[in-house]
Amino acid sequence: MKDSNFLKEHNARNLWHPMTHPADSLANPPQIIVGGEGVEITDVDGHRTVDAVGGLWNVNLGYSCAPVKEAISAQLDKLPYYSIFRGTSNDAVIELSQMLKDFFAPDGLSRAFFTSGGSDSMEIALRLARQYHKIRGEAGRVKYLSLKKGYHGTHTLAASVNGNANFRTQYEPLMPGCFHIPAPYTYRNPFNETDPEKLAQLCLAALEDEIAFQGAETIAAFVMEPVLGAGGVIPPHASFMPGVREICDRHGILLIADEVITAFGRTGDWTGSRHWGVKPDMSCTAKAITNGYFPFGAVMISDAIGEVFENDKTGKGAIASGYTYSGHPVGAAAAIACLQETERLQVKDNAAARGTQMFEGLTRLAEKHPLIGDVRGGHGLMSAIELTSDPATKAGVDKKLLATLHQVTYENGAMVRISGSNIILSPPLVVSEGHVDTILDALDAGLSAVA
Ligand code: PMP
């Protein structure tokens, strides 16, 4: 390995970092991570921290998951690649599709379409939604509705349903026909409503209103994350997603759950939709499906949609979408091992218990640090604190303060993620009580340093 100085000096010379200004990468070298063990990461200077980011919400089982590593290695030896385009398949992906069918049975989802990641999964689900309506003779259903603050990926169709201007403006015009309704975000919303249940009802009314305005017969699908992630961890009230399901059903609109973060235990249940008692028509997964060790994803599809495609006699059901790496055997082998470990360890239970500990700890920190304007979480290991320089106006905090907070927290033992004025905490689902205490203590030190 090159030495620390070389790596820091050369980091941003020849590479561009996603979601980062190139000038910023040049001016502020990032933490260069060179090792991972258990739920801890080590940087190029040998500093070790608990990874409170969990990779990027994906390393649910930590960095030492031997069964997944061994499965990848064994599959590389046996068959490192074969496509599943028309005319061929591979054994690993067939086995995986059986396992996913069982895993997603309580969500009513049985068919899988494989991808290389979350943006890919979203792209496929959005395409299949339009195609489903075309097969059924409702070709006018082409629009998509989604939540402001939602994040669904980088491809143009997925970016068009993104609800955050930061991920849109540079690339506009995006796809026409995509419309957004307010998210059930109690800290900031256009209704100035702080009661979560009342806010959920107002957002549902906004959805009804938008459907009436657009015309239900023009809308293909409504897309939502069961708990909004990148937007700053926004858990809706328990009545919200069931309310969305009921409205979609009444208007013949498909419900696509973006479970790229929430599937496989993160919310304290096996999927985010199940957490709210909702059966979506399609569910987009990626990230933790392989514990982040291999780029992979799957769109899970309901029986009802599956049958429409499979029984089509017009030719419109031909799936004219696919990636070279759809059904990659190494990704499939990783996912099989990952699912087995996920279930063997029942990680959802630890996510629920440690998530409660994290949420309670953050609530205590908010009593001590006036900089914390809002604490969100309590649904598994997805939590955030939103910082404000002025509780009356809810103004955000400046970047320098955030950088110092991040650095001091890091020096005190926890890698956290800054997004806007939010500090997001999404550690691996296998964290111990002690790890959560370490994260909270490190954050306390970071907040004290900028108080
Ligand atoms: N949907 C959600 C909810 C996500 O959080 C992400 C990534 N953070 C994506 C889609 C896009 O996934 P990917 O980065 O793997 O393309």
Overview of the molecule:
This is Aspartate aminotransferase family protein. GO terms for molecular function: pyridoxal phosphate binding; transaminase activity. Its cofactor is pyridoxal 5'-phosphate. It comes from Sulfitobacter alexandrii. Belongs to the class-III pyridoxal-phosphate-dependent aminotransferase family. With 451 residues, the protein is of the alpha/beta class. It folds into 2 domains: 31-61 and 346-449, Aspartate Aminotransferase, domain 1, CATH 3.90.1150; 67-344, Aspartate Aminotransferase, domain 2 (3-Layer(aba) Sandwich), CATH 3.40.640.10. It is 39% helix and 15% strand. The protein has 15 helices and 15 strands. It has helices at 4-10, 22-27, 54-57, 66-78, 91-103, 118-135, 156-161, 196-214, 240-251, 272-275, 303-310, 329-344, 347-368, 399-411, 433-449; strands spanning 33-37, 40-43, 48-51, 109-115, 143-147, 178-181, 219-224, 254-258, 282-285, 297-302, 372-376, 383-387, 414-415, 417-419, 422-425. Strands 4-10-9-8-7-5-6 form a 7-stranded mixed sheet, with helices on both faces. Helix 10 (272-275) links the parallel strand 8 (254-258) and strand 9. Helix 4 packs antiparallel against helix 12 (329-344) and helix 14 packs across helix 15 (433-449). The longest helix has 22 residues, at 347-368. The model has no long low-confidence stretch (mean pLDDT 97). Residues 117-119, 122, 151-154, 225, 229-230, 258, 260-261, 286 line the site of 4'-deoxy-4'-aminopyridoxal-5'-phosphate.
